[in-house]
Amino acid sequence: MTEQDLKILLEQLVKLPKESEWVEFKLNYHSAEEIGERISALSNGACLFNQTNGYLVFGVKDTVQTIEGTTFKPSETKQKGQELENWLHQYLDPRIDFRIYEFNYNGRDIVIFEIPATLHQPVKFNREGYIRVGTYTRKLHEFPEKEAKIWNKKTTKTFEEEVAKRNVTSDEVIQLLDTQAFFDLLKLPYPTKREGVLQKLESEKFIKSISGKYQITNLGAILIAKNIDEFDSLARKAVRVIVYQGKNRVYTEREQIGKKGYAVGFEGLINWINSQLPANEEIGKAFRKEARMYPEIAIRELVANALIHQDFRESGTGTMIEIFQDRIEFTNPGLPLITTNRFIDEYQSRNEALASFMRRIGICEEKGSGIDKVIFQSELYQLPAPDFQAMEKHTKTIMFSFKELNDMDKNDKVRATYQHACLCYVSNEKMTNQSLRDRFKIEEKNSAIASRIIRDALQSNLIKEDDPDSKSRKFARYIPFWA
After folding, report:
1. 3-152 maps to which CATH number?
2. What's the order of all strands across the beta sheet hosting 477-480?
3. pLDDT in tens, 377-411
4. Residue 387 near residue 415 (C-beta atoms within 8 A)
């Protein structure tokens, strides 16, 4: 928020009849623990009272709500040797993306904590939930009916529909959003009049017109922002790419944090990632040429997949691509909506409006076909099978550099066999000993090696025989466990 926005917000808050379940006033700082408890209480209270945010305001006398100023400076306050904001985040669960604003109002220093309403579960501080009851802060477990309402509360808006910036002029819309790139991506001529630009943005639900001004939605900002940092709620959703020396995270060579919206910055992001990847030199019939170690199609799909399927409600974290000597890791916030074993044949997205636009402009494949291409390209390049992992609060995909079959462990081989069976099945074919030999480049005389790998995959219950009654091992066919 700008300083003017903050002044208007402060004036609106002090005009309220009194403190409430989602607004609290204080003059000065007492303790970090007290602030943590208030963040929990105000987030939970805002949820119950259908408010987008709760507010903790320093510099206002609570009983009469007069603006008197504060001596509290959060940016200079330490707690146990850490910056206050960082310390508070460590003890919040979930780690909601609260914001701290310090500004001056008519010569008086003011601090506002803007605290987003929780959506799916009560916010706890140091393992304890809190709630405002009138003007008092109490422990949430003392009010089980309120806690139950928070758990059962459903948001009426998707993340994409929510507002990233309010009360902007038409000039500011053009300044903040890359409208030229937007029309280029849609392969449409740029309108001769500004009204045509704004109407198209509104039809795509990138902006909303309200009383002569505009609201920029999260969808518009995350896709076509000139600089994501201009939108406070999205600043931590920029894509981060880190290149490491060697095979671990001990030494960082370089790091790049994206600034542009996902759609307008996608090609630049892919080009930068590819420029950091190792290449093998191939000798052709007449000339030398460089071949990338990783297929670009797979890189594009995995980056797009991480962006599209992330959980934007997970605060303080965004999509990250980490490049190591022997692998690339693509990590996005949020657990997958389907089990990782079904990525190749199932599709479900949290952010369908975002995904739909990315498909329309050709950044990603149609529903459910992107991972198929990743698997196919991995096989074509003779790479180990990608590893899809559901972490505690993140989803990770690991793409490995080339390995000889003898250097792969049992898990690598079984995972590749399962993915090969899936790829065959969605292509209306069945995996055989021969098709698996082709996948691993095993010579026919060594078919027993493929047979052992198939046996391991059967014992892992990831594949099954297409015809269990068949007595022929030579012509046996195999399908995924879910088929």
Report:
1. 3.30.950
2. 431-432, 477-480, 463-465
3. 999 988 999 999 999 889 999 999 999 999 999 99
4. yes
